[in-house]
């Protein structure tokens, strides 16, 4: 029998459900290439679906057995939030098949087990009527497993959020949003940690006192829909999108710098440009087709040195290699240094001592 009375609580719950469906639509509509929007939009939708399921359970006697269709996917809350945070932190991450394993508990318990159990109940009402306590106990145990899982994902979300703590003032909203998520899950875990054990202890009184569990849980879900949904859509979606774009630009820039670094080192070693005693940064930049300023930045950012020290390092290594060649004794130390690219005895001795801690003669003696 359906309870058609619409008290104040149910009215606000239904209003929250409607708002949640609308919010999830707008968030998903703005999904495009934004994975954080995708996962959070689905999460808001499931909030609303769970709240609707809660109302129908209270309003329709034996609702689950009459409509054995999964509507409560609470075991997906944690994984959805986790991937929402992961894609905020790393917007270039690719969703792989193995990532679906995070949603396996929800598929097995929220989905498959629910359908099988309540289909069986529908076909065996006599058994169900004599085992109401067992069914309720099973539901509370699954709820407890969901609480443990959500607590675990709350920890994962907290751990991942540490990776975005050093943000400029412009993006501090990202850190605030992650804090809201962690607090929200902490509230839900705290409520379930209190309510589920009480429900198991007073299992025989669950039916007649269901409102003590149903209304607080409904209020929490309703508040989540309004607070998190509207906060994200109106305030944090743009900040997170801008932050994600910034991360992508930095990543692309780092990849570009890495490629430039490889091109630079290949040119220096393959063409042995360091052997040119008149080599300057402008000359090297012209060889590579870059500007001198760009070359200087790439050397500083990727090799953490400057042009002069980089080239001199190659020259010292070239000199040391020439000493190991069989016919090196035919040449003087100065002659070998000129072959390596040094243009004066004074600068060669100074640079060699700086690079190796020894004079050329001391180094030569150490090889004998």
Which terms would index this structure?
368 residues, mainly alpha, 75% helix, elongated
Notes on the protein architecture:
The protein has helices at residues 8-29, 35-59, 63-66, 77-89, 104-123, 125-130, 132-161, 172-201, 211-270, 281-288, 292-303, 307-323, 333-340, 345-356, 360-367. It has 368 residues and is mainly α. The protein is elongated. It contains 15 helices and no strands. The termini are far apart.
| N-to-C order of helices and strands | HHHHHHHHHHHHHHH
Number of helices: 15
Strand content: under 5%
Mean pLDDT: 84
* Overall 3D form: elongated
Low-confidence stretches: none
Distance between the termini: 101 Å
Computed CA radius of gyration, to the nearest angstrom: 34 Å
From the helix content, strand content and strand pairing, which structural class follows?
Answer: mainly alpha
What's this model, at a glance?
The protein is mainly alpha-helical and 368 residues long.
Secondary-structure blueprint of this entry?
Blueprint: H1 8-29, H2 35-59, H3 63-66, H4 77-89, H5 104-123, H6 125-130, H7 132-161, H8 172-201, H9 211-270, H10 281-288, H11 292-303, H12 307-323, H13 333-340, H14 345-356, H15 360-367
